[in-house]
Amino acid sequence: MEFKEFSYNSLEEIIADSKSMNLDLYFSSNMDLFHRKVCVDGLTIPNSIAFHPMEGTDGNTDGSPGELTVRRYDRLSKGGAGLLWIEAVAVVPEGKVCPRQLMITRENIGKFAKLNEMIINNARKEFGDDFTPVRIMQLTHSGRFSKPQGYPAPVIAYHNPYIDKVRKIDENIKPVDNGYIEKLEEKFEEAAVLAYEAGFSGVDIKSCHRYFNSELLAGYTRKGKYGETFEGRTRFLLDTVDRIKSRLGSKFTVAVRLNIYDGIPYPYGWGVKKDNYLEYDLSEPLKLIRILHEKGVNLVNITMGSPYYNPHVNRPSDKGEYIPGEHPLEGVARLVKGTGEIQRAFPGIAVVGTGYTWLRQFAPYLGAGMLEKGYAALIGFGRQIFAYPGFPRDLLGRGILDKKKCCITCGKCVEIMRAGGPTGCAVKDSKVYGKIYKEYCMKTV
After folding, report:
1. 301-332, pLDDT tens digit by residue?
2. Chain-centre distance for alpha carbon 329
3. What does the DSSP 8-state code read for residue 225?
4. Would residue 211 be called left, alpha or beta, if left means φ above 0 and alpha means ψ between -120 and 50 degrees?
5. CATH 3.20.20.70 in the chain, residues?
6. How far apart are CA 375 and CA 370, in angstroms?
7. Which of helix, strand or coil describes residue 253?
8. Domain 11-410 maps to which CATH number in 3.20.20.70, 3.90.380.10, 3.40.50.1970, 1.10.287.70?
9. What is the pLDDT of residues 41-82, one digit of tens each?
10. Rounded CA gap, 268 and 190, in Å?
11. Residue 50: CB partners within 8 Å, gap ≥ 6?
12. How far is CA 206 from CA 86, 136, 137, 211, 216, in A?
């Protein structure tokens, strides 16, 4: 079916459309499934709801949490999700996606520790002393999307003609050498140690959306140690996992948010069919996850695409930079089906699912269906948490979501981020972000 904006008034209408498109979507009304606890590495995630790492781009210039950062996690920690996947935290200055991206250092670790303590205390105050959400800090290098001073300063592993064209990457920019990548492994290790000292439950070695490590996974055209072969392209991620595991052992969780499909033509896309990049091929992602699992990675957050190249792949929406060549339900189905294939292949891994927000108040029915089928251990939400941070409380308490509070996937949060402002929901959190949207996105010339 052709693209159309969300217009459903009932779950039955969604089911009818999904059937007419032959989509693998399963729905269930058993909301008790969201109460199910998930155990990972000796940690107990108190329910099956996860908050994805949504960047606020509102830290202080030293990388520490800013006023709006603290406000956001104050709200999220009172929401009731069992797993808080903390937003991307840079490990080096040149790897920041904007001047105000978070970056943990020895100098500001105390502020991160205070943020972590606030999250725990808030959750226990709201839901009881036996409720402690698991907190995973996402560690990142933004690679070709880096803008540490507010303007593009791409750090690339190789040239990609598809993304280079869209992002206007200068063909004369030289890819980083092996020495830089080797040093970067150390930086991720050091940041993980700081996260551990600050009290977080674990870290995520970000490997998605075509940021630096994600780019390496598709480095078929890069020569040498960190490219060409499967062993070369996965070396950085696997070496970094080994470093952190060796340093911190079993007392600290190492997780991965992983693209299993880029949606970019081969040989520049990971997880794509060589003869049809519009379809995924999970042979290499499955091989990588098997190795990660053997190394002790037991928590994996699955995603696809890139918000900078094909955003409809990783976040089906009503509004965006272009009109996709597919119905949003097809994007939802791609995400949940791919996640399901990973979870079924690795039942010993807690897999976090993605792709639910577009369904608004009907999202829990699909999430419950995925839990019921064993297609995910946790159901993750991204943009929804900007708009409706307390939705887990409503879902777990009443079994329904308030449609008036749900994210409408209008893209305004992304607009603010692209314009260089602190990001949030300009519609549902308008008292704060409505003004910010006007300031950054409605400037008069």
Report:
1. 999 999 999 999 999 999 999 999 999 999 99
2. 20
3. T
4. beta
5. 11-410
6. 5
7. strand
8. 3.20.20.70
9. 999 999 999 999 999 999 999 999 999 999 999 999 999 999
10. 30
11. 81, 82, 83, 84, 85, 301, 352, 378, 379, 380, 381
12. 11, 11, 10, 8, 12
Q: Give the β-pairing of 83-90 and 276-280.
A: unpaired
Round to whole Å and give the CA distance between 103 and 88: 8
Per DSSP, the three-state class of 84 is: strand
What pLDDT does residue 1 have?
A: 85
Nearest alpha-carbon partner for 303 in 373, 352, 371, 253:
352
Q: For the full predicted model, state whether its pTM sits above 0.70.
A: yes
Confidence bin at 366 (pLDDT 50/70/90): very high
Cβ-Cβ contacts under 8 Å for 208 (sequence gap 6 or more): 214, 257, 258, 259, 303
Compute the distance between CA of residue 178 and CA of residue 150 in angstroms, rounded to an integer. 27
Upstream peptide bond of 133 is cis (omega within 30 degrees of 0): no
